[in-house]
């Protein structure tokens, strides 16, 4: 999706989506012609769909596409077995700062973590720790941009848009996958 289409709430844009289930709950994956634009986690599939509709109120949402459900299956497989990796084309829309943060997050390998301060240093903005945390919270593609790998400076697990327990579960799975690899 072009930045212009994004600013126009997805006007004249087709977005395919499907909802699946994982051991972490419901998952919604959505994709524009440029790539995956949303990976949402939650307990209620209807709320996930409403979240997608709120993000792209003027887009043409297309659900129930059997071919696209394979993309959802690959995300669910990654959640269940993170050692396989996840490689999807992404359509990330955000501010220049958010895009820098999300790119830095994609550089954190599975089984490893970084602090918000580490990410601020990596992107050349050491005094922007709170802005890094805000960019993590604005991440529209759970697990594809691994904001769950970012911890407080003391190593503690802090907020996660899709729930701290999901964050903890993802980190445990990834560390276990690295240990058995």
Number of strands: 6
Strand order of the largest sheet: 3-2-1-4
Let me know the largest β-sheet. 4 strands, mixed
Q: How many structural units, i.e. domains?
A: 2
Provide keyphrases for this structure.
two-stranded parallel sheet, Double Stranded RNA Binding Domain, 181 residues, globular, 7 helices, 2 domains
Topology:
Layout: H1 3-7, E1 14-22, E2 25-31, E3 36-42, H2 45-55, E4 60-63, H3 69-80, H4 96-106, E5 114-115, H5 116-122, H6 129-137, E6 150-151, H7 164-180
Parallel strand pairs: 1-4, 5-6
Antiparallel strand pairs: 1-2, 2-3
Helix pairs in contact: 4-6, 5-6
Detailed description of the structure:
- There is one protein chain.
- The chain has 181 residues and is an alpha/beta fold.
- The protein has two domains: 3-84, Double Stranded RNA Binding Domain (2-Layer Sandwich), CATH 3.30.160.70; 96-180, Arc Repressor Mutant, subunit A (Orthogonal Bundle), CATH 1.10.10.
- The protein has seven helices and six strands, in the order αβββαβααβααβα.
- Strands 3-2-1-4 form a four-stranded mixed sheet, with helices on both faces. Strands 5-6 form a two-stranded parallel sheet.
- Strand 1 and strand 2 form a beta hairpin.
- Helix 5 packs across helix 6 (129-137).
- It is globular.
Brief account:
By secondary structure, this protein is of the alpha/beta class. The protein has 7 helices and 6 strands, in the order αβββαβααβααβα.
């Amino acid at each position: 999706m072009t930045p212009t289409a994004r600013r126009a709430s997805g006007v004249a844009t087709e977005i395919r989506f499907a909802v699946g289930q994982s051991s972490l709950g419901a998952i919604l994956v959505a994709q524009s012609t440029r790539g995956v634009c949303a990976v949402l986690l939650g307990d209620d599939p209807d709320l996930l769909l409403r979240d997608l509709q709120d993000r792209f109120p003027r887009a043409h949402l297309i659900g129930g596409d059997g071919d696209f459900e394979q993309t959802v299956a690959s995300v669910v497989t990654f959640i269940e077995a993170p050692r396989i990796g996840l490689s999807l084309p992404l359509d990330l829309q955000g501010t220049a700062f958010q895009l820098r943060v999300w790119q830095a997050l994609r550089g954190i390998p599975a089984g490893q973590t970084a602090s918000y301060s580490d990410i601020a240093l990596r992107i050349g903005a050491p005094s922007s720790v709170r802005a890094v945390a805000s960019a993590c919270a604005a991440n529209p593609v759970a697990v594809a941009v691994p904001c769950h790998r970012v911890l407080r400076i003391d190593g503690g697990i802090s907020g996660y848009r899709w729930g701290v327990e999901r964050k903890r579960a993802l980190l445990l799975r990834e560390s276990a996958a690295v240990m058995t690899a």
